[in-house]
Write a structure and sequence with these properties.
A five-stranded antiparallel sheet has the order 6-5-4-3-7. 37% of the residues lie in helices and 24% in strands. It is built from eleven helices and eleven strands. It is α+β, with helices and mostly antiparallel strands. The chain starts with a helix and ends with a helix. The radius of gyration is 25 Å and the shape is elongated.
């Protein structure tokens, strides 16, 4: 069975690489014997989609092209699938090995291992063990969100996606249509930066707030991808990290430890409440709403009004 699948994948790759124009599913089915033996159209479609995804996982760049008539064709251009010779010195190889070790406890463990196998074939020094201990501290990047893997592939393949997203201030999730640019981990949370088609602007989404499945939609981007995607700076700004003022809040005793960590001053009020001075920047109102009844904004007045408006929106559903 493994040999048959490997032969089928090789035949599909050769067909796509040798084609001078995009080939439709029907043409590919007629060209590959294993597809001709498929019992039904549904069986062939499932087999073809799995094979296409497997080839992409192996590194083959497969383009999906839609004709003027609406027919979809597939093509693997030779210039897009040809790499220049790769030479790595010992320090570069060690850095790549360390990067791969980071992912061994995450969803990218298989991808990291496969990438190192390809690098060995391309010139990774044989005397470098990529999984050798590099010190007393072992770096890890946790990935628990189910949305990470499909979004990572969508960023790589430049494919628009659709998902349901629940904002911190919303009671129910909303459907978002996004052109994904980059994923980045910041302070233990993963974020996606991309172009929100519904809002016509760049947005950053926290993966833990994505509900349900991430679905691919279409094949092309409508907005240019910036050379530098500043995920951390954007998240820091919306989280109130970039602050030029100070806010005064009441916080219930024993609650809101992230707020306490940011406070420049803490005063005990008694009756189970404390008073805090915290940095005030763009997006602080959305963060304070997450603490619900444990936080009361004292000043400034505009921050208090923003928090009250958000709480009322949540109450209305």
């Amino acid at each position: 069975m493994a040999i048959a699948k490997a032969e089928r994948l090789m035949n599909l790759a050769l067909c796509l690489l040798g084609a001078r124009r995009p080939l439709s599913k029907r043409e590919l089915r007629e060209s590959i014997e294993a597809y001709l033996e498929a019992g039904s159209d549904d069986s062939f479609n499932r087999m073809f989609e799995r094979d296409k995804d497997d080839l992409r996982e192996l590194g083959l760049v497969i383009e999906t092209v839609e004709s003027l008539d609406g027919d979809v064709g597939y093509l693997a251009r030779r210039d897009s699938n040809r790499l220049p010779p790769i030479t790595l010195d010992a320090e570069e190889a060690a850095a790549l090995g360390l990067a791969a070790k980071v992912w061994q406890q995450a969803r990218l463990a298989g991808a990291a291992s496969g990438a190192l196998q390809k690098l060995r074939a391309a010139g990774l020094p044989e005397d470098v063990d990529p999984y050798e201990a590099h010190g007393a501290l072992e770096p890890r990047i946790p990935v628990h969100e189910a949305a990470f893997e499909p979004l990572m592939l969508a960023c790589r393949d430049r494919r628009p996606v659709v998902f349901d997203y629940r904002k911190a201030s919303a009671a129910r999730p909303e459907t978002r249509h996004v052109e994904p640019w980059a994923l980045e981990c910041w302070r233990g949370h993963w974020y996606l930066a991309g172009f929100d088609r519904d809002r016509g602007a760049e947005r950053v989404f926290r993966l833990s707030r994505i509900t349900g499945k991430v679905r691919a939609r279409g094949t092309g981007f409508t907005a240019p991808v910036p050379d530098v995607v500043t995920v951390r700076e954007t998240v820091a700004s919306w989280a109130g990290e970039i602050a030029d003022r100070s806010a005064r809040i009441r916080l219930r005793s024993g609650a809101g430890y992230p707020l306490r960590a940011k406070a420049s001053a803490v005063r005990e009020l008694g009756d189970g409440w404390d008073e805090l001075d915290i940095p005030y920047g763009h997006g602080l109102d959305a963060w304070l709403v997450e603490f619900g009844p444990d936080v009361v904004v004292l000043e400034p007045a505009e921050l208090r009004a923003d928090v009250v408006d958000r709480l009322r929106a949540v109450a209305k559903g």
